[in-house]
Design brief:
Blueprint (H helix, E strand, L loop, with lengths): L3 E2 L2 E2 L3 E4 L4 E7 L8 E8 L2 E4 L3 E6 L5 E6 L10 H6 L10 E4 L30 E2 L20 E3 L4 H6 L56 H21 L13 H4 L12 H12 L21 H13 L10 H18 L12 E5 L2 H17 L2 H5 L5 E6 L5 H9 L6 E4 L10 H13 L3 E8 L11 H11 L2 E5 L19 H4 L2 E4 L1 H4 L7 E5 L2 H8 L9 H5 L18 H36 L3 E3 L7 E6 L6 H18 L5 E5 L2 E7 L7 H23 L1
Parallel strand pairs: 8-9, 13-14, 13-15, 15-16, 16-17
Antiparallel strand pairs: 1-2, 2-10, 3-5, 3-11, 4-7, 5-6, 7-8, 12-18, 17-18, 19-20, 20-22, 21-22
Helix pairs in contact: 6-17, 7-17, 8-10, 8-15, 11-12, 17-19, 18-19
Length: about 700
């Protein structure tokens, strides 16, 4: 309702301090960075619409009141009475603040009508206005951040007074009587509609106030609906505005910690305070993994269907340790493992209708750990789990294998001294099968027990692909378990043209793992582990105390996934994977992978064509590694310059990269795969890289 006349800028709104006034319910909420804003602003032909109605509670007094505004989406509602009837659980006698044009249908305009039935709020009201040139903010100017414990009104003048150019008379703080008609519509009283019976546990309004509770009250379904809408809206808004954030958090060590109270609260508080502190405390310390210019590490995809699936899982609160504790949790997971095996073109031995099958683990690290335990079970004939390790078992990895294998050696008791590092091809960084064969033969001759080889499809450093078939032949000849870690790259096999990634799996792999939570649009955590034979796995991990015994388990007709993982408890992770597959379908999943691969190949072409840059040749998927040439600099100085370049780029907030070392040189890694990343983001990042490189070259030349 604000208007511009000459140099006057006016804005009709009401601001309520979040730290004093709790929002109990609302409809048509329009979020604000400062306190909650109610009303509507007109600037030229643009109208910003906000809250239709809201129910507030004064944290200090515990009193409840309503605010109703007609300048909203509900154009057909022409009276306060009709609007109030829409309020769930509206109660007669509760104070009401009205703003807006409630009598337009009767031909009588009342731009601002104020009503109160409780003078307790009167001395907290005041008006404000601003004169001067407009600024680039909502309504033509930025409202002041309220201070003190008061309700802040910013209220434009009456329409007729504005047209006459007269100075409005502010609405003075009320002192137990209605305000006089001084150019603003005088207050009037309406009869509140009959209150509808409140459902059991209803807490809107004044019947039950948090400060009056003797003990911490649980969130009711009605409260959950209200706050749930706020949370979902917040997430949707975050996804829309994510590009406005710096990709890498700009927080310094200890900043978030210093913003948090040292001691926990003694009494509960409204959830809107949590949301307010999310913005104030948490967001400054967030690195935005879903940002379209996030190119560090590997992608950690999140998508709407997966978020909703996780919400359903949390809402159900299932503890799926046994089939009996929730049959749907187990059987949906079994079906999802089979669906994924089909989508990726994996061999039939990994399907649940045979001796093998799949399970959802939290991460590829856990998958590697349980694969080692299964391999120990098989290699020792069950003695490792019963009697402990003898110190004679050995593992085989390459210099490019993920560090989780070395950690797993520590956890299982094999020890890092028994982890053998196999040579790699100097050009592709893939494992050398001939050297693997020699190492295994040497250990066997020394009386050691070669137990597991880990081959990798898509290493973390450069996405090197080990020759699984050739490695598998060595493993079969020596009777060693072959685990294939395809954490990042495995999901790419959803595209038929990338199924070469599966070469050798059908013939040789004993276990195989990949992460839908990296590049397949499924929120962390969701790793899929398949085994060709489940017996060594369950033999290593199955323990059945009396309190877990049940008829279904003892029948042998069901799967108990507690025997396929380290912990006993397990979440209903299959719901989010189910949501993703059904939302996107195979075609949508393939399109996402192909987009990432295509953008990476485009980037590789730009790097190849740009003078002064060196491209790492192996880039079959969506990771590209490269470095500036830094002509004339010694290698150690050139590597330092590359790291300095990365730090400057990351500090800018425009993009986020990480690095690795290959062939003794520092390389920049640019991993593409966030759902929102488009060519414009990759091109912009490359342009920034070139610009910053040239700037450092000029600095170095001086």
């Amino acid at each position: 309702m604000g208007r511009k006349g000459g140099t006057r800028d006016e804005f009709a709104a009401v601001f309520y301090r979040r730290d004093r006034f709790e929002v109990l319910d609302f409809d048509h909420f329009w979020p604000s960075d400062t306190p909650l804003l109610i009303g509507s602003a007109t600037w030229g032909d643009t109208v910003t619409r906000m809250v239709t109605w809201a129910e507030f509670r004064d944290r200090r007094t515990g009193r409840v009141f309503y605010h109703v505004d007609h300048q909203s989406h509900n154009a057909r509602v022409r009276s306060a009475e009709l609007m109030l009837r829409r309020v769930r659980g509206f109660k007669a006698g509760v104070p009401v603040v009205l703003t807006g044009d409630f009598n337009a249908a009767a031909g009588k305009s009342e731009p601002y009508t104020v009503l109160t039935g409780d003078d307790a709020f009167a001395d907290t009201w005041e008006t404000a206005e601003r004169r001067g040139p407009a600024s680039n903010t909502v309504g033509g100017w930025k409202p002041p951040v309220p201070d003190g414990d008061r309700i802040d009104w910013i209220l434009s003048r009456d329409r007729d007074r504005h047209l006459r150019g007269e100075r409005p008379v502010p609405l003075r703080p009320l002192t137990g009587r209605r305000p006089p008609d001084r150019g603003l519509t005088s207050a009037r009283t309406i009869s509140a509609p009959r209150a509808r019976p409140a459902p059991p546990g209803h807490i809107l309004g004044a019947e039950v106030r948090r400060k009056e509770r003797d003990v911490a009250a649980h969130m009711t379904p009605e409260e959950f609906r209200r706050y749930g809408r706020q949370v979902v809206d917040w997430i949707a808004d975050y996804q829309e505005r994510i590009e406005k954030y710096p990709v890498l958090s700009q927080a310094r060590p200890g900043e978030v910690l210093a913003s948090l109270p040292v001691h926990p609260p003694e009494q509960g508080e409204g959830y809107e305070n949590v949301l307010a502190d999310l913005e104030r405390v948490v967001m400054p310390g967030i690195t935005h993994w879903q940002h379209p210019s996030f190119f560090a590490y590997f992608p950690a995809n999140a998508s709407g269907p997966a978020i909703l699936g996780d919400l359903l899982s949390a809402g159900l609160g299932v503890q799926g340790m046994l089939w009996a504790t929730s049959p749907a949790c187990t059987e949906l997971e079994t079906r999802m493992a089979d669906w994924m095996a089909e989508l990726l073109g994996l061999p039939a031995k990994f399907r649940s209708d045979g001796p093998g099958g799949g399970v959802i683990e939290d991460s590829a690290s856990s998958a590697s750990l349980v694969a080692i335990l299964a391999a120990l079970e098989r290699a020792s004939g069950g003695r490792a789990g019963r009697d402990g390790l003898t110190g004679r078992h050995t593992l085989y990895v390459s210099s490019q294998t993920h560090s989780s294998l070395e950690k797993a050696a520590k956890i299982t008791g094999i020890g890092t001294a028994r982890v053998r590092t196999v040579d790699v091809d100097p050009r592709t960084l893939a494992m050398d099968p001939a050297h693997l064969d020699a190492l295994i033969a040497e250990d066997a001759a020394a009386g050691l027990v070669p137990t597991l080889v880990c081959a990798t499809i898509g290493t973390t450093s450069t996405t090197a692909v080990d020759p699984v078939a050739a490695v598998g032949e060595v493993c079969r000849r020596h009777g060693v378990w072959l685990h294939v870690d395809a954490a990042y790259a495995g999901v790419a096999a959803v595209c038929p043209e990338l199924r070469w990634l599966n070469d050798g799996l059908a013939e040789y792999a004993d276990s195989y793992a990949t992460n839908p939570h990296k590049w397949l649009l499924t929120n962390f955590d969701c790793n899929l582990l398949w085994v060709a034979d489940r017996a060594p796995l369950t033999g290593a991990l199955s323990i059945l105390p009396e309190y877990l015994r049940n008829q279904a388990t003892e029948s042998g007709a069901v799967i108990d996934y507690r025997d396929w993982q380290i912990p006993l408890g397990r979440r209903f992770r299959a719901l989010k994977l189910w949501s993703v597959i059904r939302w996107y379908g195979a075609e949508g999943l393939r399109e996402h992978i192909r987009t990432g691969v295509a953008l990476a190949q485009r980037l590789a072409g730009w790097i190849r064509d740009e003078p002064g840059f060196v491209l790492f040749d192996h880039h079959p998927l969506s990771l590209v590694c490269f470095r500036p040439a830094w002509d004339g600099l010694p290698e150690d100085e050139a590597d330092a310059a590359t790291l300095r370049l990365m730090e400057r780029l990351n500090a800018s907030g425009d993009l986020y990269l990480t690095h690795t070392k290959a062939g003794g040189r520092v390389l920049l890694r640019m991993a593409i795969g966030a759902p929102a990343t488009r060519e414009e983001h990759v091109r912009s990042a490359w342009r920034r890289i070139v610009e910053e490189t040239r700037a450092i070259e000029r600095e170095t030349a001086r």
